[in-house]
């Protein structure tokens, strides 16, 4: 358990951080990690190791590889493999403020901010983990896979499945070298751009093979790094059809809205690039944020009056609007469709004690004492308190407590959503708003406020989910807690190292609008723009009556959005309005605002083929292989990107470009006209 989990945690953490700096964020897929552990040889598992290396392997692992070890490894590795939020802050400070907190401050901020949410999760576990209503639907396929892998190992079926996994894994590993390196045109084959290589509108609508190029309508993407579940948490192969259709409907509206705004020059859209995460002067020059700040990075009103307020690209503004609406839509959707059930559950919960059958069985294990969680809270708060002062954040001590109070308030609300419908709205923008209102004029302080007001919510949800996975698979709670904490710490350390390496070697590219097909600073840029806009300029930019003053009201519009669908469903129950998942529909209104967009059409076709055709007409195959197929494709792609990044992609300093040829042209890989 220790050997595999630490090894995989390191692999996942490095990979997760590299992916953060890619044109389209790719997440390290959990099913892949899960399948990978099954495939790495262990003692009582593969006969050849039993005979040749007996003593070594017996020392490494004295017993059979069982489901509990397997779950523990998965939890540690997947915890380590997401990029920590604090990394966005350090990268922003480094790239845009020329401030570099020293390694000790950086690492303690990381560990503090990543662990601080676990205390809240621990305190709320008797409500959000133990009872039966806290289902965590996204754990179901995982629990099933664990079960399938550890039952009847010797069966012929099992061998066939492993062979299937490996064939797909190797095939995609080899294939990915083409779209990623040798022939980038395969990332987005656009018939339209091939036919007309001179039209700017063709680039905007049909281009999408390069970062921030265009909307990628109807372009055929043959790169699994973008088509796979990496493109977001929604995988074409395993997300239910109805959810995905809401997603595609939202995407279509997004395309229309982006083009309409640009064509009608709303918000001066034509002065700025079509897709960009940066802030601009009205004349289209990149906004110089240091020119409106004092040396201590607080807002200087006089300088602002000289320079003028910054502008967003219209697409980026629409993205903000969709993100704001979606918080409201998620909460209202939840209340409309699930409120009665939840209310009953809460009432039941209050009178009776927990008689969840899984929980009853877990009683043989010692639970974690609340003192542990309290200790975590005290320790991490001390770390946070020390580092907000030593890192020059400008966040006062009361700001830290206010942020934590917000987080604590949101955790039960969002936790209930997550536990019951498996969907947790991202409240980052709401916390940024609150921070801007409480601590105006300080962009860096706003980033730290968001770090402590939003990140604990994410982290506590992940601990709650993993404790529940532990309850399903009967992993002792102390083990779950322990592997999760260690995974977090390993992740934080490696995130920091990789961030430093990438910033040093790819600085120029990360600062540019379009980046390359391997590296892109779009996540940092977007983070930085938000911090300036909310942190420094909340009042002049977002207060009622100002230029973007309508954005906060979108929260209320979002609250109203699910209501018509609900009413329509009550009136016409046969039309399937209950299948419209309004939060996703709204969230997708901004989906094309950044990155490589060519993958959507291919995802759509794949969804129809897999979730509709295969599921309906080849149900047996679908049940046995679909999830495994997704895991193998994600896995082969992840390993390829890892090797590629360090071999020729510049992860270790030097980029070795592939020579240009027909499928690796200068300019945009899909032959659309280059606009930036
Ligand atoms: C745009 O405006 C800014 C601020 O007024 C100025 O510094 C910059 O030089 C201008 N750029 C161009 C291309 O005129």
Automatic annotation (TrEMBL):
Keywords, alphabetical: Membrane, Peptide transport, Protein transport, Signal, Transmembrane, Transmembrane helix, Transport
Superkingdom, taxonomy of origin: Eukaryota
Entry-linked NCBIfam families: OPT_sfam
Subcellular location field: Membrane
GO biological process: protein transport
Name of the protein this chain belongs to: Oligopeptide transporter
Gene Ontology MF term list: oligopeptide transmembrane transporter activity
Bilayer topology: Multi-pass membrane protein
Organism annotation: Laccaria amethystina LaAM-08-1
Keyword Cytoplasm: no
